[in-house]
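Dear support,

We are seeing what looks like truncated structure output for some complexes. This example has two components. We would appreciate it if you could run it in full and send us the complete token output so we can diff it against ours.
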Amino acid sequence: MRLAPGLVKVGILLLSLAFTLMLSLSIASLVLPGNLRVEVPEEADWNVQIVGDLLILETDLRIYNGADQDITGFQIRIRVNDSLGNVIADQSGDRYDLPSGTWTDVAVHLDLDLGQMPAETLGQLTFGNGSLGVGVQAGASYFFRLIHVDVDVARQVPVGPLIHGLQVDTAAATLGRLGQEYAVAVPFQFEAEDLLVGQEVEIATILTNSTSSLGGGMQTVALGPVTQGELLVVLSGDAAAHLASEEDELTLKVTIQFLDARMTLEYRFHWSPQEAAP
Amino acid sequence: MSDFDLRHGRVMDGVLRMAPALLTFVLVPFGLVMLWAGLVGSDDWHSGPLPDLLTYAVLSGVMVAAAYFFNGFYPLGSRSRLFFGVLASGMAIVYLFILFLSGPFLAAEERLGVQGYLEAELLLAIFAMWQVARATGHACEYLAHAETWGAGQGRRARPKKPPASASSEFGLGEGDACLGSRSAMRAAFYLSLAALALVSFRLLLPSMGSEALEQMAFLGCLGSMAWWVAILSYPLVVLAWCRGLYPRGTLSRLTFGLSFCGVLAILVWLALESTGLAQALAGLGVDAQVGSITLLLMLVLALSGLRYLAEFHDRRRGWRSGQGLKVSPAPPLPLGRRAEISPRTGSLERGVRGAARALALFLALPLIVVVLGTALLGAMDSPLAAGLEELLGKEGGSLVVWGLAVMALSFVTAFYPRGSLGRLLFGLARALFVGLYLWAILLGGELEWFIRSQGLPLSLGPIWALLTVFIVFLGLFRIGEYADHRRAFLVSILRALPRPPERGRHDALADFRPRYGRCISGVREARKAAGRYWVWPSVLIMVTGSALIALADTMQMGHMELLSQELERAMAIILWLALPLLLLTFLRGFYPKGSWSRLCFGWAAAILLAIWIWSVTDGGQLFSSLVVEDMSIGVDLDASGLMLVFMALEMLWGLFFTVEFISYRKGWMLNGYVPVNGKRGRGGLPRDL
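Here is the complete output from our reference environment:
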């Protein structure tokens, strides 16, 4: 029986050749410049909001698949770590199929639970110069799902300070009445990044002299791009009488708290009664 | 029963005949038109002449292919086969005529802005001549087999021709028309290819941009070369037909063989020297030594001419005695040990053929590359090109020295008969010199220093060591040849008796006996496998690794240890699998078609190759990471599915060996365990004697 082995040989060779050619052309069509395009929105197009303790970042990417085959199961995963190695967020987005020759909108969504963030990290980000390790992993399958590629790009992104430029004008401190009590009012000003605008911070103050505590205060301030106001230190009657009549060397301790992150600053100044008439 | 009765035919034979025609007349023109349009940048596919041209090529090509199907479908010697063969050639000529000289082609040329670049008349002339040669071939085939076919159909045989006389050496009836036609077709094919290459090269010029005077001069020069090929192809095809027609040892074959070489030499001279190619190239800034190329080609042709003289010398006596003519008694062949290296046992024809092949491979081709390379690099104004030009200039000298040594040894090796000690010893010496030739190119000059100076940390020593695998196989090939042909040679010098035919029971296990094997086939298969699965992948990995290191240094990409480790791991696996793979492929090639042994080793090799694919690629998994400034980039590739497909494709070869086993089993057994269509030993002796 002759089964034409030559024909079988040619058939196998043609099959191998056809498959290899198809694979090569398909990959070439994918990697050729301009065939795979990603439009990343400008920073302004990012939708950033804080709901409760959740910091939510959202945007839509536009991806063009100019290859001759569909890209399937495209998924973006974002990981955020702090400088101590704590995982702050690790979220995978939805899976998308990117049909050949079309643009596809891909939603990117990241929730950062600030409440779960270690206080130290949050403090660094809010008031100091911290950094976050941001890793973006994009994965997709190609060529009849026979090839799966994950590309992971990670870098340290410097973040913060979100609240900065705190200025407390102790020279303009005044003593006045606050209802039934007396209080020292000290003008202050600080700036906050857009991310925190609308959020509230608590400001605690304590005024002391060399011997004792004269008074303190606690107030909640809504953040704007530039927040300014007066720090009110409520005094006891003796303390108010003392400050009204005598000079003294005072220390004002100001603590600003945002969620669990807090920053304390001390200001020393010379108090003169004539400066602050009741 | 009529010759045209469909019951005579075999569909499979028809399909096999149709497939190349389909490729030639449908797929290749289709691909060429697409390529042409792509090269010259046509963006208009839905209107104009190109779709017409494609439609015409496909429809007419299918008709020609259909005629070829019936030509192959009907048996040899039948009138139907002749009819469809001539019809196919005729249709092909009409196809070419309309394709090249009809409106769509000319309109397409005009539309694409390349009118005049394609010499349509020239192409028609060349391809028509090729088809005429094919038609003659069909006629010759009919004449050769008509009697056998007629006898099978109960027709009366024609009277035998009278025996030849000494004066009829040039008589047309003396030769084998089929051989002549085959030789003519081969010549026509290569000449068509040369003309097509020249015309295609002309086509590339408009895509290069300017129409400077120098470029037009070069274009004209290429056109003249193509026309010389076309004009001289007619006498060349006729001479090739005559050369093939007459048997070896005749004055007629010698005359036509030498004439063929002479006309070919004239063609080379006319095409390269009289067309002003050197001046045209100089106008483009390429200072090519065309004279050296002409000289080299003339040398190859001279050696080819010498081959006919040697053939005449070797075969004259045999032909005359075969014709019953008077011959002077031949000096007795030396017997015993003297025969091993006696020049009387050798063949000048074989020696000259071996030397010509070595001249082309080890001298002419590399030197032409050197000449053209230095000319092209000289035209470029860059330090890299200047360095390469200088390097190539230095390599030329060592190429000549070592190439001449290899050529001389090739002559001596081929001169002695297979199975003789002389052939073995000189063959081994030749392998050694080929190794030295390779060493002189890679390590003897300044190639490695030059590569390193360009920032590529590539060491050529390990590459040379890998390439010596081929040299080892050259030596093994000679040893295998010696082992295979030794008994036949000893029989020819009366020092041994032919091996007695096999008697007794032959079961499946008996197929594994070494007596059925051929070392040459085994070594050949193992050499192919060594190249494909050991040497070239390793060289590729080495070069890739060096290139990656150089790239990382240049772009300051930091460490690439992961990728380097992957490459080293792949190298180690290739090395570990090389030995079993070579052993299995050797055994697969060693045993003949139709034997259980070949089937088993064929499957084992296919399975091992599938494992090779999976292991070397780590199951299609690749993880690599690199650091660029403050950013780390990791790529995790999972192509395991793809690797499974490639493994399945590799396993199909096991299926092939099964089909081959089924096809050849019966014939091999009936043939007394001698390969059915395998080559026999020299002198018509079966291989296993």
